[in-house]
Amino acid sequence: MDAEIRKAPKKQNGKPLPASINTVNIYTRQIRKAFNSAIKDKIISENAYPFKSAYVIPSEEGNAKALELTDIEKIFHYKAEPGSIRQRSKDLWILTYLSNGINMKDLCMLRWHQVDLITKKITFKHQKTLRTRKERQKDIIVNLHDESIEIFKRWGTPNSPNEYVFPLLSDDMDESRKRSVIDSLISLTNNHLSIIAKKVGISIKLRTYEARHSFATVLLQSESVPLYFISDALGHTTFSTTERYLGRFSKKQNKKYVANLSPNNKDKNPDRIHCDLHSLKVHR
């Protein structure tokens, strides 16, 4: 198993605590990966696969992982030293958030032929689905914001079709080395994101992962984006997967929706809440 999941059990009063749902999720996904490889190599039969209907991998609700738009705006406005690791960390978070919540592995694996800065689009497939059935391998299309294009130009390699966009990986690396580089990047980025969060007054834990959840939740809370669009943008094949990425509605929205239960409110028109991604301005 990957080194990233080798965790010592947490203890309370000297006694090991039960594994968290998130830890169980990490371990069982590795087991599922082993089953998928064994089936692909015809070592075992598909009938022995336990994850199709016999067992469902548990997952924690993603409610605490999505940032409010006001906190996201703080990240956009944070001023980091130009060319510093902290600026790169901020930029990678913003790029992930604006690019359909693309995860860090997919971002690191992008090559220039998948990025078109003229038409402002990225087309890619999730790395984790490349070894699955073909019908689950769908193209994800990202419409690039101007802020995203600036980030590509600031941190990208010279534009050559077969080259990786970011100078992190190379073709002479094996998969283990690539995974190690990506893990190190995530760890370093998360450390700087934690510092940024403290400096701008964001109370929840800020990591690269929160960008993906925030992308989905902000769109949902805009009240004008259908769940199908969000699910498709994330590259999900089922709505149930998408639902795990969605955070709670704000208190103001909850109050508005519950007010609709009363027939006395049917003709009222409460102030609409509209979260417009394009209204975010980056101050450099």
Describe the secondary structure blueprint for this structure.
Layout: E1 11-12, E2 15-16, H1 21-40, H2 69-77, H3 85-98, H4 104-108, E3 115-116, E4 121-124, E5 140-143, H5 146-155, H6 175-200, H7 208-221, H8 227-234, H9 239-243, H10 251-259
Antiparallel strand pairs: 1-2, 3-4, 4-5
Helix pairs in contact: 3-5, 3-6, 3-7, 7-8
Protein name: Tyr recombinase domain-containing protein
Family: Belongs to the 'phage' integrase family.
GO biological process, one term: DNA recombination
What does this structure look like?
The model is unreliable at 1-6 and 269-284 (pLDDT under 50). Strand 3 and strand 4 form a beta hairpin. The protein folds into two domains: 3-48, no CATH class; 63-263 and 274-279, hpI Integrase, Chain A (Orthogonal Bundle). It is 42% helix and 5% strand. Helix 3 packs antiparallel against helix 5 and helix 7 (208-221) runs antiparallel to helix 8 (227-234). The chain is mostly helical. The strands form two sheets. Strands 3-4-5 form a three-stranded antiparallel beta sheet. The chain contains ten helices and five strands; from the N terminus they run ββααααβββαααααα. The chain has helices at 21-40, 69-77, 85-98, 104-108, 146-155, 175-200, 208-221, 227-234, 239-243, 251-259; strands at residues 11-12, 15-16, 115-116, 121-124, 140-143. The chain is globular.
